[in-house]
Task: structure prediction
Amino acid sequence: MSVANFVLVKMGAQAVEFLEKRAIFVRNYSHIIPEHCRISIGTREQMRVLAKNMGEFTERGGFGLA
Result:
């Protein structure tokens, strides 16, 4: 079994910029794994804020899912 306090997420620079404008900072791992970022696990409230903003990004056509 493995345990970690972060997730690696495939998302491009537009998503990172979108989150940073909302004071949500992720670590760019593109130098190791192209188009991937590391998101540290925070408090429940921080994770709610992240999920809300990722949903908003998706609704605006981000990730090609809208």
Notes: DSSP finds two helices and three strands in the chain. The first strand starts at residue 6 and ends at 10. Residues 58 and 66 are 6 Å apart (CA to CA).
